[in-house]
Automatic annotation (TrEMBL):
Residue span(s) of domain Alcohol dehydrogenase-like C-terminal: 146-208
One Pfam family of this chain: ADH_zinc_N
InterPro entries per record: ADH-like_C, GroES-like_sf, NAD(P)-bd_dom_sf, Zn-ADH-like_protein
The name this protein goes by in its record: Zinc-binding alcohol dehydrogenase family protein
Organism whose genome encodes this protein: Paractinoplanes bogorensis
Domain of life: Bacteria
């Protein structure tokens, strides 16, 4: 079969022949139909992600750990965790029986690869207990996940949406998607802190962490004695840094509540969120910006830096 083959940690996968996987008794062979290439896949292949040792424990290897495929009977499924060194970026892969879920009817495989990213924004409801009419700040709104969060916040009935990013051109695009106001996080610290304070937010969906969120937490500290309505912050991503410093007074006096996106998630809730996102997708209320490329273009596609909030989706065959 053809596959994207990684020969060295930190290298770029190449389109090459690779031995076909053979399914064991507890495994199933899948024809791969679509795979989203995300930053996490690149970090794993670069050896800089904590999961690198797990997913790239032998070379050569095929990157990407999830995707959409067809079972031998043709049923389309979302799958995860191929048996190493097989990965998702190939014509075929092999997974444990049960390591897949049938796709909702009517969703095309490329779009299906991005539904999980949209679901992260549903943590607005599950983790933060959002109620319609509240102000939502999407921290890191110019990426794929952030742009989807702006759309989802609108669909859930946000009263006002504030979007942040570090590039004015992209922030204009995010405004066109439905944000009511935008903030550029590349402003100097004091200016940014003032902008956050003026923007206000009931709930923050945070895809950045690092410096921008450190300043945001500072901005929540009341400047005079008051009983502020605490902001709820949902931590989802870390594009701007894996760590930050929180001054004790930020928590003490603002009453800010910080949740992980997984708060209140269980299998039944995930099903419910999935069904909602699928319904919006099928009705056309939720749209996805994808760049579809054939597997044969993987080497160039892997190195693209012009995606601007569009998800790269590799479509084998
Ligand atoms: N993909 C998922 O399904 C998923 C699910 C849950 C969580 N997450 C996490 O959410 C985060 C965003 O994911 P994504 O898929 O949206 O990625 P993405 O499309 O690559 O977007 C990354 C975003 O982060 C911004 N950014 C990168 N470095 C920055 C920095 N130093 N300072 C400020 N902004 C910075 C980028 O700004 P520019 O556009 O200006 O470069 C872009 O808006 C990641 O941490 C990811 O692991 C992703």
């Amino acid at each position: 079969m053809k596959a994207a083959v990684l020969h060295e940690i930190g290298g770029v996968p190449r389109y090459e022949d690779f031995p076909d996987p053979v399914a064991g008794d507890d495994e199933v062979l899948l024809d791969v139909r679509a795979v989203a290439v995300e930053n996490v896949d690149k970090l794993i292949a670069a050896g800089t992600h904590y999961a690198s040792r797990h997913y790239v424990d032998q070379l050569p290897a095929i990157p990407a750990f999830d995707g959409i495929g067809a079972l031998p009977d043709g049923t389309l499924v979302g799958f995860g965790n191929p048996r190493r060194p097989y990965g998702a970026l190939a014509e075929k892969t092999v997974v444990a029986k049960g390591a897949y879920m049938p796709l909702a009817d009517g969703i095309d495989p490329a779009t299906a690869t991005v539904l999980g990213t949209a679901i992260t924004a549903m943590s607005l409801k599950t983790a933060a207990g959002f109620v319609p009419g509240e102000t939502v700040l999407v921290q890191g709104a110019t990426g794929v996940a952030g742009r989807l969060a702006v759309r989802v916040a609108r669909l859930l009935g946000a009263g006002r949406i504030v979007a942040t990013g570090r590039d004015d051109d992209q922030l204009r695009e995010v405004r066109a998607l439905g944000a009511d106001a935008v903030l550029n996080t590349s402003a100097p610290d004091e200016e940014l802190e003032r902008a956050y304070r003026e923007a206000g937010a009931d709930v923050v969906l945070d895809y950045l962490w690092g410096r921008p969120t450190e300043i945001l937490l500072r901005a929540l500290v009341p400047r005079s004695f008051a009983f502020p309505k605490p902001t709820r912050l949902v931590q989802i991503g870390e594009s701007a840094g894996a760590a930050l410093t929180v001054a004790a007074e930020s928590l003490r006096t603002s009453g800010v509540e910080i949740y992980g996106a997984a708060r209140r998630l269980d299998a039944a809730t995930m099903q419910e969120l999935y069904r909602q996102v699928v319904a919006w997708t099928l009705s056309g209320e939720l749209t996805f910006d994808l760049v579809r490329v054939p597997l044969s273009d993987i080497e160039t596609a892997w190195q693209r830096t012009d995606l601007r909030g569009r998800r790269l989706v590799v479509v084998p065959g």
